Amino acid sequence: MLRACYAPYRLQFKEPSGTSRGILTYKDTFFIRLYDDAHPERVGWGECALFRGLGSDDCPEYEAVLAEACRKVGLMPFADFLHTLSGYTSIRFGFETAWQELNGWCQYPSRFDVGEQPITINGLVWMGDKDTMLQRIEAKLQAGFRCVKLKIGAIDFDAELDLLRSVRERFSRDEIELRVDANGAFTPDEAMSKLEALALYDLHSIEQPIKAGEWDAMARLCADTPIPIALDEELVACRVVTPTLVGQLLDTIRPQYIVMKPSLTGGLSGTDLWRSAAEERGIGWWITSALESNVGLAAIARYTASLPTAIPQGLGTGALYTNNVPSPLMQQGEILTYDPNASWQYPSLIWK
To answer: Taking the complete model, does pTM exceed 0.90, yes or no?
Structure first.
C-alpha cells in the first residue's frame, strides 16, 4: 500500500529577487516522501511547490489538503487519487513526480539521469536598476549563455529600453537571444505601444504583457503584435486543467508561444495536455521552473528531457538559494546536466 508524509521547508534567496509582483526574500515549499509498504527501502521524493501570490492553489486550506492527500494516497488507484487533486496543481505535481521517482520515471524515459542528455537553458536576469541589470546580463554572457531572459515592468520603462539598447549595441540577435517577461505589468491600453517600442531591439518573445484573464484583449495583442507573445500566468490562472478549457483558451487567444511551469500548470499530466494542444495548433512552447528547490527542479528537468525540445528551456533557477538541497544537478553556463556519480543530500526534516 502506498503511503506518504510531508514536511514544510523555507528556501532563502541569496539576494532579494525582484519581479513586477514585488521583492522575494524567501519561498515556502513542501517536500513529500512516497513509499510502498511492500518495499519501504524505496522512496520517491516530491516537492509540492506552492507559489504564494501566483499559484491558483494558493489558499488558506493548502496544508490541510496536503495532509489529507498523504492520508488517502493508498486508498484508491493512483490515477483516481490524482483526479482528486485537480484543483491543487502544485500538490498534484509533488505526488506525480514522487510516484515517477518511485517507479523509475517509466512514463517519461530519458538519458538525463545518467548524464547523457544535457538541457540547454536560458539565463535569468532579475529586475533591478539599469546598472545592476546590465551587470547581471554581462555576467550571464561571460558564463556562456546565448539566450537571456529579462524580467521587466518594475522600473521605469524608458530605463528598460535603454538597457535593451545597450545590449543590442554590443550584441546582435545572432549573438544573443533576448526574451523579456513582463509578468502582466502593462495595461491593455498601453501594451501595443510598449510592444512596438520593445520590437526595435530584436526580441525573441515577451511573456505575459498584460494580466491574465483578459482573453479578448490578449487575443487582439497576439493578432497584431510586432513581438511573439508567450502566455505564462494565463495558463497558471486555470485552476482545473481540462481539454475543453485548454482548447478554448488557445483557440481564443492564439498566442505564438506558451510557457509551461509543471508545478503551476496542472502537474506533469496537465503540462502534457497544454503541450499537445499547442502542438496541434502550431503554437510553440518551452518549459520553465517556478522557483522550486532542486527536488522539484530535477523532476522538471527529467520530464523536459523526455520531450522533443528545440529551444532553450527556463530551468536556470537552481542557484538562487542559500539552503537549496545539494543534488546531482550541475549547471555549467547554459547547460544543465545530471551527474549520476553524485548523490542527494536531503535535509533532516520533521515529517507529518
So the answer is: yes
140 has catalytic annotation = no
Residue ranges, CATH 3.20.20.120, the chain: 112-338
CATH of domain 2-102: 3.30.390.10
Burial class from Cβ neighbours inside 10 Å (0-12, 13-18, 19+) for residue 224 reads: exposed
Q: Choose, from 27, 140, 149, 151, the residue flagged as catalytic.
A: 151
CA–CA separation, 215 vs 229, rounded Å? 13
User: What grid cell was written down for 175?
Assistant: 549573438
Q: What pLDDT, in 10s, does the model give residues 78-114? A: 999 999 998 999 999 999 999 999 999 999 999 999 9
Query: Which positions ≥6 away from 158 have C-beta within 8 Å?
Result: none
Sign of CA dihedral 247, 249, 255, 257: negative
Catalytic annotation, pick one of 27, 194, 211, 261: 261
Stretch(es) of the chain classified as CATH 3.30.390.10: 2-102
Residue 151 appears among annotated catalytic residues: yes
d(CA 321, CA 349): 18
Q: Which CATH number fits domain 112-338: 3.10.20.90, 3.20.20.120, 2.40.10.10, 2.60.120.260?
A: 3.20.20.120
